[in-house]
Amino acid sequence: VSAGILEVHCDARTKAFEANDEGRVSRVSFETEGWDDLDVGIVVVSAGIRPRDEVARDAVECHERGGVVVSDTLQTSDKDVYAVGEVALHGGMIYGLVAPGYAMADVAADHLVADLLGETYDGSTFAGADLSTKLKLLGCDVANFGEASGDEALVWEDKLSRTYRKLFFSKTDDGWTLSGGILVGDADDYAELLALSKAQTVVEEPASLLTPLKMRGAGALEVDDSDPAKQICSCNAVSRGDLETFIQAEGEECTYASIKKCTKAGSGCGGCEPDVKKILKSELEKMGATVNNNLCAHFDYSRPELVAKIRLDEQNFKSFDEVLAAHGHGDGCEICKPAVASILASLHNEKVLEGDMAALQDTNDRSLANMQRGGSYSVVPRVPGGEILPEQLIVLGEVAKKYDLYSKITGAQRVDLFGAAKADLPSIWADLGKVGFESGHAYGKALRTVKSCVGSSWCRYGVQNSVDFAITVENRYKGLRSPHKMKSAVSGCTRECAEAQCKDFGMIATEHGYDLYVAGNGGMNPRHGALLASGIDEATTLKYIDRFLMYYILTAERLERTAPWFERLASNDEARLKALQDVIIDDSLGICDELDKRMEHHLATYHDEWAEVVKNPDKFAHLFKQFANTDEVQPADEMIQFVETRGQRRPVDWPADGEAQTNWRPPSLSVFERSEHAWQDFGPADAFQANLGTAVLYGKTQLAVFKLKDGSVFATQNMCPHKQAFVLAQGIASDGEVPKVACPLHKKQFDLSSGKEINGGDLEIVTFEAKVEGGRMMLHLPPRDEVDAVLATDKLRVCSKAPVEEPVFSR
């Protein structure tokens, strides 16, 4: 805390707060012997939770020290009045955390519904709540869980990394169980420790839990995957038990969409989606239900089934419309369009931004860059094997300075440049291309990197030239589109400095060649790679990798990494490995010839995607222009505040959901109902590509225009209200049951007609009438100053201090 952030004064005995001539606090004096007075400008007193019970005091019983007194059913002294949250005093205690508030609300809701139905309800009661919590204070993780007591306590204190952990254990007849703990500085394993304490599982080696997660093996803490308390969605605190209960209540009609809507699991970062779907499949199978694994509502096939149909079809389909006409129905959506585009890129390796293909791509692929917070983009050149020339390092620095980009070396041995404006991306890549940089495909579901140690070229322990082989491997598979991202590594000896065993495919050098590991994973669910073959030469290694990757590409589900795909091959690791070796090495399915030829086709058709854009600037210019109707630009720092961090600038942290500057709402969806509207011309309709959002500038306001395949046109604000990010025009639009757009950041979906959020959310966006007339794009809009009063970019800019007043305008 004291490292340049706060200065902490311990054992302070405050004597007085002293005022200046203006009556404002200016000094704090102390009774502590030898202490000098402190000059201050403000004093903040942190004194816990104070119930706001003023309204209740005249109606129900309140405690003299504050709080509405409630029973176990959350009823007050007036049986028709309930109280929950920080105002409720239960058992002499005020709960100042959100989780107890939710628990109270559940109990109160049960009794209220029973009362409305005229029923007697003897069910749930509130008996107190778990006060476990995890917070981030001044950039430092802090957490507590369970009971801060037990028969023994173990303490870990690392002053170098500023980490403190204290775990309490209780002795039982069967052994030691975890009672609770305090974590400061590193709380990565909070969810697992919490689950372990709740389950009261016997811990064989208590000391193994004491060290921070990053300092111990991934398997040191084992929590039963079937444990109902295991947290699945950390964004919304949804456990396995929560999901199982919901699925069982929904029955055989339960879908992932309904789970996401009602439990919120998967509606945050989306990282838990594979686990949620696995639990759904397991629970449906227990019910004897048929598990629907269709790609989406427009295709009655799973991804592997659709791939099989496309690759075996004599028509040799190369467009989404052809695939949809032959094997699907409707117009497509934000799920199937990128999925089919990825399949076609894997099979044919044609340019992803050519013609109608651009409209199918997910936001990052369409921009050939990763969208970051605030709507700016990152630039990630490929650095094969981590080997880079001095001239290339110099140009990276020059580009970063020229465009004011935040620079960071990644764990994958390359340099990320953050904060680029979309309109600047072609110019940036033109500069990088001059010194040989190619696209790093950080934006795509493709091979990211092949990490390497220096191997025998420098290291005294190296037994093979891992750098040379890593560069060969990376250049061979660069640009290969797949169901999910892929990572690789080559280690020059068994010391494993490149961490090859936790990659999708990795090689470890031995005296006899290479050991080839496959289906490893770091990520959310770490997995050790399986040893596919050992002691093989480079040519054989490449042959097996060729087949492994192509087999994975042809048979994996959408957004499925190699690790979960491998787990689906059989019921245990031994059987899985045998099944894979049978296909890859022994050709048990008779498809190795096809797998080899498909890889040969990839190698023969490789192209650097950014080089194509730089060579043809006029052809792709419309994809990188900020606004279709003007050359004027709004820089990133007009949309989100940037702050200085160690000599570089970055966007301010997003506020947590529910705080100011999140979940923005217009005064009403009819805010402009009384305004005088007029049709405004925004340029040729041909400049607005079908099923692709396009941003336009109106005064100081960003608007998004969507032209769907059927010719219908919609206009909305460009700001997604969830995080006040100006990105809706970058989302994928589709019609289906309702015309909609999916925000590219967190996949919030909005009805383009009504502006209301779809799938259970309650956010709203402002919409405007639009049409194509005489070949021109026309929008029916109020005067600029009235639109700007509500939607101007500078009024909605995310900053470190929220504006005090809501945006309003007068007529």
The biggest sheet amounts to: 6 strands, antiparallel
Low-confidence stretches: 217-223, 802-807
Mean pLDDT across all amino acids? 90
In whole angstroms, the N-to-C terminal distance is 51 Å
Keywords for this structure?
811 residues, alpha+beta, 6-stranded antiparallel sheet, 20 helices, 36 strands
Question: TL;DR of this structure?
Answer:
By secondary structure, this protein is α+β, with helices and mostly antiparallel strands. The chain has 20 helices and 36 strands.
Give your account of this protein's structure:
The protein is of the alpha+beta class and 811 residues long. Helices cover 26% and strands 21% of the residues. The protein is built from 20 helices and 36 strands. The strands form ten sheets. Strands 7, 8, 9, 10, 11 and 12 form a six-stranded antiparallel beta sheet that branches. A hairpin with a 5-residue loop joins β28 and β29 (713-717). The chain is globular and about 80 Å long. The two termini are 51 Å apart. The model is unreliable at 217-223 and 802-807 (pLDDT under 50).
